Amino acid sequence: MVxxxxxxxxxxxxxxxxxxxxxxxxxxxxxxxxESGENLLIVDIGLMFPTSEMHGIDIVIPDSTYVMDRLDQxxxxxxxxxxxxxxxxxPFLVEAGLRAPIYATALTRGLLEVKLREDKVLADADLxxxxxxxxxxxxxxxxxxxxxTHSFPDSVGVAIKTPAGRVIHTSDYRFDPxxxxxxxxxxxKLRKWGDEGVLVLLADSTNAERQGTTPSEATVETMxxxxxxxxxxxxxxxxxxxxxxxxxxxINVAHRHGRRVGVVGRSMVNNVKIALQLGYLDLAxxxxxxxxxxxxxxxxxxxxxxxxxxxxxxSAMVRMSxxxxxxxxxxxxxxxxxxxxxxxxxxxxxxxxxxxLFRQGAYVLYHEVGNVHVSGHGGQDDYRHMLALVRPKYxxxxxxxxxxxxxHARLAQECGLPKDHVFIIENGQIVEFxxxxxxxxxxxxxxxxxxxxxxxxxxxxxxxxxxxVLRDRRQxxxxxxxxxxxxxxxxxxxxxxxPEILSRGFVYMREQEDLIKRAQENVAKVLRKxxxxxxxxxxxKDALGNFAAREIGRRPMILPLVIEV
Length: 565
Known about the structure:
- By secondary structure, the chain is of the alpha/beta class.
- About 30% of the residues lie in helices and about 25% in strands.
- The chain is built from 17 helices and 27 strands.
- α5 crosses α9 (about 265-280) and α7 (about 220-230) crosses α8 (about 245-255).
- The relative contact order is 0.12.
């Protein structure tokens, strides 16, 4: 009987667990953990930029507690490419003690080194350069790579042999017959692995709402040709600093039209510098324009590549749009191309930047009025093609908000996968694979869910701002606050001073003296009876809260301050 129970327990133990800590049910902060026995492997450690409701937050990173508590089991970290949502949180984990080898292609490693050096943790990181032809043996995991077409050169997806079977993680990809770098996604490897058998496919879902395929990068180059041939003055193009494929396109077209290229924006300058050093850009470093040359040369000879395609407040393009850039000034005749589409939730900043650029007298091209950008992610037809190549037994959509995951899951079912072989999960929900039926066949099931919420970075603080603090900040931003100061006699509880009311963000006190006086009178009514200080604070809060809601329809944060003297 004991042997039977022990055998059943062994059969139920998973051979593989897939643990998403970020990037599932959201776009950004991608982080995926593979676990087999006492061995962990991480794919990507990214960040996410805050939404408008995250007041004061600089960035958002994954909750990596599950991994940080098991660092001795971590066999390695794989970085698929150098976008911030895939590498941006690495410095935080290295600073917290991560010492396992970090594997990345040359350009991804170069950009990561800049980040680690800025955070003064480069010496603590074990970085290893890989190519898409390498094979790594990391504990029980055999990791192979395949080149993917994306808006970042040197992007890779991963194929991992595990004790349960092969897993393919596409990361960000699309199928493009004419990519900017001339290297299409490696379909031959995907087809070969599909023939050998794939246990589970984890695939990018970013564009699950978009029918058809994503247009080729060649369409952007056609747009650039037209713009540079017709522009009467300088051409300024804003794009993501990591979109080095787009940078190379701009360089190529500029050369054909007798224009020289300059770059502005700290992250753009750093990324271009690294790409030039590693040979990822076809341009001599001394060919780049200086800031003085960008201003002094005749407009038809100049192209400027800048940060700020999303309307980021401190970026070069945004500073130029409000006349606040210390080196460059927009002028009549300039043509500005915002070569990106706004990230969901970022439309307000983007639109404000477009308006400000028009105010400066520039001619502005953006996604609503021209083919200025091509997504680095595939559309529904690309997803169908990936499923047809890989033919997985199980499917898990990743890298997308919840609706994207659902739509991608439905598409997989349309392609022939049984409904119970498709898992729609969110951060923290574990999927397990093993011989759970004891018949030698590997099957999948949902495991437990672990905490995997967002970790907020505010200044030098990491994780010290939570939902309660954000709720307070949101309330302060909407209705301001009122401070009510009262001094009571320590001996008999009688009122010695007050109530004195101070306000910020609620009303302008100099113009609302009558309102403040009436607020004081409402508080005074609850002060007439001798009351313990802790009870008095609650009475003051209730009195002021009811008064503010009744008189002006606002609900400010109320801070009663009762002092015993």
